[in-house]
Amino acid sequence: MPEPYEKGPYEKGPYENPREAIAPTGAGGAMDLAMSEAETLDKRETEPTGEEGTPPGPGGRPRSLWTDAWHQLRRNPVFLVSSLLIAFLVLIAIWPQVLTDADPLRCDLAKSQEGSEPGHPFGYDTQGCDVYARTVHGARASITVGIAATLGAALLGSLLGGLAGFFGGWGDALLSRTADVFFGIPVVLGGLVFLSVVTSTTVWPVVGFIVLLGWPQIARIARGSVITAAQHDYVQAARSLGAGSGRLLLRHVAPNAVAPVIVVATIALGTYIALEATLSFLGVGLRPPTVSWGIDISNAAPQIRNAPHMLLWPAGALSLTVLAFIMLGDAVRDALDPKLR
Amino acid sequence: MRGASHPTPWVACAVAAVLAVTASACGGGGGGGSDGVLSSSWSDPQNPLEPANTNEVQGGKVLDMVFRGLKRYDPGTGEARDMVAEAIETTDSQNFTVTLKKGWTFSNGEKVTAGSFVDAWNYAAHIDNKQNNAPFFSDIVGYEDVHPESGAARAKSMRGLVVKDERTFTVALKDKFSTWPETLGYQAFMPLPQAFFTDRAAWLNKPVGNGPYTVDSYTRGSEMRLRRWDGYQGPDKARNAGVDLRVYTDNNTAYQDLISGNLDLVDDVPAQQLKNVESDLGDRYINQPALILQTLVFPLYRPEWSKPGMEKVRLGISKAINREQITRQIYQGTRTPAKDWTSPALGEKGGYADLCGDACVFDAAEAKRLIAEGGGLPGGRITLTSNVDTGSHRQWMDAVCNSVNNVLGRGPVCTVNPVGTFADFRNQVTEARVTGAFRSGWQADYPLIQNFLEPLYYTGASSNYGKFTDRRFDALVDRANAEADQAAAVKHFQDAERILAAQMPAVPLWYQNGSAGYSERLSDVKLNQFSVPVYDRITVG
Amino acid sequence: MGRYVVRRLLQMIPVFIGTTLLIFLMVYALGDPVAALFGDKAPDPATAARIREDLHLDEPLWKQYLLYMGAIFRGDFGTAFNGQRVTELMATAFPVTLRLTLVAVVIEIVVGITLGVVSGLKRGRPLDTGLLVVTLVVISVPTFVSGYLLQFLLGVKWGWVSPSVSSDARLDELILPGVVLALVSLAYVTRLSRTSIAENTRADYVRTAIAKGLPRHRVITRHLLRNSLIPVVTFIGADVGALMGGAIVTERIFNIHGVGYQLYQGILRNNSPTVVGFVTILVIVFLVANLLVDLLYAVLDPRIRYA
């Protein structure tokens, strides 16, 4: 292991730039966490240009950051456990019949809130639907929301943020202020208002809403890391050699700026899944006949006294999924951050 | 934060005091009522607490304590009895002479006079005052002058109301309306003191009426304290020292407060707690019929639901709903499967009878056959729409849909369309934008069969949201209203109801019972037909 | 410094206008509020038309917005549908939410920093790993689940605390809701202070302090904590703004009549004056909190100077 790179007390700390100080995102602690940790990551890129120390510039090393990270990840049990878990969840999301052939929409009110019995290990909910079948089938909606919203927010956010950071000027100012506008709206409030006018029964309005409020966070990260990446010597060199903006951005800047975005996105994925549940609790999330953990949890939460099993299973599944994605994001972050090796 | 090792109330209090956040909030002792005062759950009235602007139960609760009108519905029988009125006389069912009893005063000392009523009614009807209940005065001659359909008012008061002397006034109606005096127990018809007209804003902050309670303090959105008015001269003096109405956002929280001893009375036990009332409260629990009916209305303004033959599909859907099972499993028997379009709280004399008959009885095979005969569901699907922000609508809608789906056995053909907010739902319904069946809860304003039928199913009636129209039904209602004899009028209304049973413009689901739980401190807790506790009868201690 | 503040304040103007416009559009999209005023009954057309006219609902949207903003600058936030001035509603709701936020923040500080410091000093040990997993689990549980669970267990089953909050919203009643509200941020504070402590324990000045023979606890309290907690403290400052707007779920579960409750009621009834007014204030709180946090940085960390 290489000697960790350390800073003296009077060097620039990780929080030197007030514009990038941790501001609350309105999306809850996990999102704040993801943002600040990704911002800490950014500084990895600035430090090599510092006046002292051995600059471990990306180009100056035998192994790239990515190979290094991969080597570390392979040996990290947290990464292995969480990716196995995610693989399993994705499998049942695509193909729930692997685990159950029961129909989650087939309900018998006569069995309302009954406990487990042979063939129905998790018991029944208020409507007399099989909790096991609903928990298994609920994975699809929840994971679709998580992945689609993360992809959408990450693509939109890094595109806008990256362009703003690279080109600067009035476009940058406009973007930053627009992002501030979205930060200013409490998430739950925005959900209540936006989603209460929607009548679609698919997951896409919820995905769209999360993308709408989620992109500024990613954009902020992407902007910051593009700005730092663009200051590197090799980018300046390429520029002086006459490389066009497009080539510069795609070939030189983007690959070196993408790490923080990946970290935020993985952690955000977990929080988006939890957000869907909160929206369902407020009556504006996914709609039946979609089966989702959020719907089941919000139906079960008030029944906690009568039938705790109704809450336990979907809530457990949700927490496990969120946990898996946040742990994955955490492991990736650790692997990409040379300071922590 | 040196030294602050635990967030004890004292430390936090000190910080709060420094921040100049109402320091008094740190002093007060435990909640709960003091001597003879009971606390009861409430939710914030939607509109200002004026009699003619209040059209929901929560505001009605307060008005019932603070006001007494010409008539009052007997909490036990629902019969309209004279309260402030000494007599309401008529010879032609169209022109009425109202005489007031002596000795009634408002709690600020003003006398209750004929003018108190006439001024209040004119105020209520006048368009400039934007009172929700203005249409209740539309039967009076001259209503159009103060409440034109568009434009400014042409008069200050209605010609049909004339003050004869301090205790007498006359009312002229546009048409014959034999049961008109029976409607006068409704809160829109309460009298108002002069203090209201001189300073309305101050009055609204602390309403003054002529009832057994006075408003001690009112913090909108959180609490109202009512105290017994010792100067009250009416026959129903309050038996407790007062009532504290506390606003709850979630009736489940209110229930939990009740069982942990922080609250004395909850008049809306949440569905999910109904299983526990027996063990939590024992016999301190009331469950009795109220004048509330839940129905599922079909959008007859849409041709696919109103074309000939569809009445079979509508009947089939009614027969596909297992009301017995749903009321038992979801509501633990606190709803009663509906057998007609009124309420058992009317009593048989009032017109309640099993008129839906077979059409309201669950029969899977017959339901399937009827729906197939009628040409099947439009597009093979049906959606149920309701707001889901309050009540347990989500649960019963899921249950109804599952019932229909299980009967048809063709997968999820019935789906629930939850609407996030009541406001949004009301807009969709009143603008006829709902494409499938939708919920309609009807709470009668007064215990008359007319109020369950005419506003809801008469052609063009104000709350006929499904746009049902049937000439024979309209004719029977007209005949009933002109009938001076009560029993004969009820007969005509029942005949009209039989048409509903054949056409099924709205599926009666269940009668909503009033349910309430109370603490050991209270006794003599009763609910009236509007599922509101009769506060003045409750004793504390 | 002064120029920096002025610049930031100027930047707030477009953000403020943008946010209020967005909220206004959103509430407008919810539709006509008038029908809901009439409950389950049909609105009387003439009365409804008059109410719309008085609320300017018959005007085009841009005009409504201008009228509204004009009134706001005169200090008039309009009247809620129940006849109460929105400013009065604010006067009762904001202190309650402020108290709740305060309780939550105190819990965050006390519990979060303690755990974070312990965890950071024991980096890599079982205790640290255990705390890390606990914070992750806490993050993964939605607020309404932890709210209902704690309310049921502590309030009803074991009867340790009152399951709801009275209208006075006394501070001792707010502890449980405060914990629920704080939980997620608590996990964050723990992790933030852990990272910060872990980084600083290897810093030269700490090594120097240890080398010159200072006792361990003195090194920790005097040198390590002071430098490590700068980001934590500033985060908590900014979190106040986010907590105030984010308490909708917590306030609903515990029956707290604060900002979240008023907002929720306002949305349910399409009560645009309430919703727009409250959000406007929240946006201002949010913007000012961000500015204060940035300035706090400069105060706490002498290396930062604003031009």
From TrEMBL, chain A:
Q: Where is this region: Disordered?
A: 1-64
Protein's recorded name = Peptide ABC transporter permease
Transmembrane residue ranges:
78-96, 143-167, 187-215, 257-275, 311-332
Instruction: Outline the extent of the ABC transmembrane type-1 domain.
Output: 139-329
Any Pfam family matching the protein: OppC_N
What membrane topology does the annotation report for this chain? Multi-pass membrane protein
Q: Where does the record place it?
A: Cell membrane
- Bias (Basic and acidic residues) occurs at 1-19
InterPro entries in alphabetical order:
BP-dependent_transpt_permease (IPR050366), MetI-like (IPR000515), MetI-like_sf (IPR035906), OppC_N (IPR025966)
Which PROSITE patterns does this UniProt record tie to the protein? ABC_TM1
Q: Mention one GO biological process in which this protein takes part, according to its record.
A: transmembrane transport
Signal sequence, start to end: none
UniProt keyword 4Fe-4S, yes or no: no
Q: Which GO terms describe its cellular component?
A: plasma membrane
Family as reported in the entry's similarity comment: Belongs to the binding-protein-dependent transport system permease family.
From what organism does this protein derive?
Answer: Streptomyces roseolilacinus
Automatic annotation (TrEMBL), chain B:
InterPro entries assigned: Peptide/Ni-bd (IPR030678), SBP_5 (IPR039424), SBP_5_dom (IPR000914)
Q: Name one GO biological process term.
A: peptide transport
Region ranges (Disordered): 34-54
Q: Which keywords appear in this protein's UniProt record, sorted alphabetically?
A: Signal
Q: Which residues form the signal peptide?
A: 1-25
Q: Where are the transmembrane segments?
A: none
- Give start and end of each Solute-binding protein family domain: 84-463
Q: Which GO terms describe its molecular function?
A: peptide transmembrane transporter activity
Example GO CC term: the record gives: periplasmic space
| Name by which UniProt lists this protein | Peptide ABC transporter substrate-binding protein
Species of origin: Streptomyces roseolilacinus
TrEMBL record, chain C:
Q: Is the keyword Nucleotidyltransferase in the record?
A: no
One of the GO BP terms on file: transmembrane transport
- InterPro entries per the UniProt record, alphabetical: BPD_transp_1_N, MetI-like, MetI-like_sf
Q: Where is the ABC transmembrane type-1 domain?
A: 94-297
Q: Which topology term describes how it sits in the membrane?
A: Multi-pass membrane protein
TM region(s), chain numbering:
12-31, 96-118, 130-154, 174-192, 228-254, 274-300
- Cited Pfam families: BPD_transp_1 (PF00528), BPD_transp_1_N (PF19300)
User: What keywords sit in the KW lines?
Assistant: Cell membrane, Membrane, Transmembrane, Transmembrane helix, Transport
Q: Which PROSITE patterns match?
A: ABC_TM1
Q: Answer whether the UniProt record assigns the keyword Transmembrane to this protein.
A: yes
GO CC, alphabetical: plasma membrane
Q: Where in the cell is it found?
A: Cell membrane
Main subcellular location: membrane
Family, similarity comment? Belongs to the binding-protein-dependent transport system permease family.
Write down what this protein is called: ABC transporter permease
Organism per entry: Streptomyces roseolilacinus
